[in-house]
Design goal:
Layout: E1 2-6, H1 11-23, E2 27-32, H2 45-49, E3 54-58, H3 64-72, E4 78-81, H4 88-93, H5 95-116, E5 121-125, H6 152-171, E6 174-180, E7 183-184, H7 193-205, E8 212-215, E9 221-226, H8 227-239, E10 248-251, E11 255-258, H9 259-269, E12 276-279, H10 297-303, H11 311-329
Helix pairs in contact: 1-8, 3-5, 5-6, 7-9, 7-11, 9-11
Amino acid sequence: MKVFITGITGMVGSHLLDLLLEKTSWEIHGLVRWRSPLENISQHIHLINTKKRVFLHYGDINELLSLQEIFRKNDFGCVFHLAAQSYPKTSFTAPNDTYRTNIEGTNNVMSVCKQYCPHAIIHNCSSSEVFGRVPAHLVPITEETPFHPASPYAISKCSADLVGRYYAEAYGMKIYTTRMFTHTGPRRGDVFMESTFAKQIALIERGFLPPVVKTGNLDSVRTIADVRDAVNAYYLLVSTPGIPPGEAFNIGGTHTTTVESILEYLLSLSTVKNIKHEVDPERIRPIDADLQIPDTSKFQSYTCWKPIFSFETTMTDLLNYWRDRISVSGDAFLQR
């Protein structure tokens, strides 16, 4: 089977590529923009260069013509739509770009699937951010919890979520939507809270920063999953028979904690023991999603999926990822 992954060079897309190469014999195609860094998939460059199982296509989900050219030449049996403007805080300063990429881009992907591979299995990656500010009496969050988006990013994901449902219901397409809760691990972008904590700690350990970690809101509650568990869930979603088309699923971890506790655990792993932390007003969102605690029983009832990676392993691997990068590149990283 030929599969297509938008966002293949991102954290999730690259880990999904790793998993599919290990678990399947599928031919894997990925969408990359001309400026997309390839470091997350550098371990597979030999396969790309020799055209063995992994094929990259230059294009953009915002450019329908580029998608049409790719899909016209390939009969994809499965499409993982992961590409997005995925940073909530950026969406406050660039809402139009966020709306265009996440709403129009998703519609473009669904449109070309309808035109060229209407029988393909399609994974539409939404987000737990659609639920936004959830009152305590509605926690844990089920698939039926009302949307209450707390950022332009979350608004865009509500729309992308509904775009997928529309194509499934209107055209009988095999579209499945996932609302993944906080997931992290190696290759996590430094614009996300736990990754910027880990990056700052690694820079402090090398002497490139004073021993102070800059933070945003530390009181927010999150349930943490490992990205490697997340991509295994996505693989099970498209490979498990009997899942009704058009369904949406909450997927997430089992370790619920505050952002402050995440920071404290990362600090406990550091070789520097006098690190302080202080709130940076620029890191505070105008409005924040909170109580992001999922009920994943619906997805588990179909797939028997369960998280494998512990919170401690995930955080250790994330910190070591940044240590490795900084040991190679030194202080060439911005403090984000």
